[in-house]
Specification:
Blueprint (H helix, E strand, L loop, with lengths): L2 E13 L3 E3 L5 H4 L11 E3 L2 H14 L3 E7 L2 H11 L8 E4 L9 E6 L3 E6 L18 E8 L6 E9 L7 H23 L8 E6 L15 H4 L19 E3 L4 E3 L2 E5 L1 H6 L5 E2 L32 E7 L1
Parallel strand pairs: 1-4, 9-10
Antiparallel strand pairs: 1-15, 2-3, 4-6, 5-6, 7-8, 8-9, 10-13, 11-12, 14-15
Length: 313
């Protein structure tokens, strides 16, 4: 008997605990008692965005959430408690501070027990003994699924690859290296033909599969790997976009759920791309928006959550 698990991946865009001084406050005076978050001196940034992000996550109601651009676990706990129903809704949490200088990490929130966490942020680029290979991390997380005799383990590999800032072609080699290393990590854990094992590679891979004037994809080895399936490709081509880039008026798939071949074959469902939190200027989406969404801000994110009803044999 199989178990159904609602799995989602979402780049929540700058889920920070950042503050600015209120008008008329001298920062030196505000800090006389040490670094204390005091509402008389500080105002939290991005509260409108966080409320809409929380509404989006409540609407998709996933059993397991793989998140990107989270500042740290404490920030995620505070967000969970304020907007998602607290520990009672998502009692399990996983995150490790990664490599990004902006302090944006990958993390997991889960209704199901998390039994194993492993970070791969220590890997270095082959050509550099000091440069991290993963821009953030490849976070390996085991989730316990089912009960009793039907209990099993689902392994997630949560990623946030190198961005295209600086040019798609110029940044492509980094994403190629990251994709190759993820495949190596999966193979080392599950063997030379890992597609028969219960795992999912997911996250913001920061590239799309089309070749255009800006170059070719740096993630194709992973996305086209015969051990996984890009389930978003089950949707009509025009409905596969997960990100809106305003400057170029571009709609692309940058976010992926890649279940192992065996999980993909057991799962007939078509994934859902939840777009109610995208800004109004993303005019390709004509459906309803969450309350409070603006022309550009506030919004849930510049990415859309990808959700899959995954069947685990």
């Amino acid at each position: 008997m199989s178990t159904t698990l609602r799995l989602a991946s979402f780049n929540v865009e700058n889920l920070f605990a950042r503050w600015r001084f209120k008008d008329g406050v001298n920062p030196a005076d505000a800090n006389t008692r040490g670094w204390i978050v005091d509402q008389t001196h500080f105002v939290e940034l991005g509260q409108d965005d966080k409320a809409i992000t929380g509404a989006a996550l409540q609407a998709i109601d996933a059993d397991v959430l793989a998140l990107q651009e989270v500042e740290n676990v404490d920030t995620l706990k505070h967000f969970r408690d304020r907007y998602l129903g607290g520990r009672a809704k998502y009692p399990y949490i996983a995150g490790v501070d990664g490599n990004d200088p902006r302090l944006i990490d990958v993390a997991v929130l889960s209704k199901l027990p998390i039994t194993h966490i492993r970070s791969y942020q220590h890997f270095l680029e082959p050509s550099s003994p000091t440069t991290p290979l993963f821009s953030r991390d490849c976070l390996e997380v085991d989730v316990e699924v089912g009960v009793g005799a039907s209990k099993s383990t689902l392994t997630l590999y949560v990623n946030h690859f190198k961005s295209m800032i600086g040019g798609r072609s110029q940044t492509r080699p980094k994403r190629e290296q990251q994709a190759a290393k993820v495949m190596e990590i999966v193979t080392e854990r599950f063997g030379s033909s890992p597609g028969g094992s219960p795992f999912v590679v997911l996250g913001d891979l920061n590239d799309y599969m089309q070749t255009d004037a800006d170059g070719s994809p740096g993630i194709s080895a992973l996305v086209d790997w015969d051990q996984v399936e890009n389930v978003v490709a089950r949707l009509p081509v025009d409905d596969q976009w997960t990100h809106f880039f305003a400057s170029g008026n571009e709609y692309r798939q940058l976010d992926y759920i890649l279940p192992s071949a065996s999980l993909a074959s057991a799962t007939a469902a078509v994934p859902e791309i939840f777009r109610q939190g995208v800004p109004l200027r993303a005019v390709k989406y004509t459906g309803p928006r969450l309350p409070g969404v603006g022309l550009d801000n506030p919004k849930a994110s510049d990415h859309c959550p990808v959700v899959l009803q995954l069947e685990i044999p």
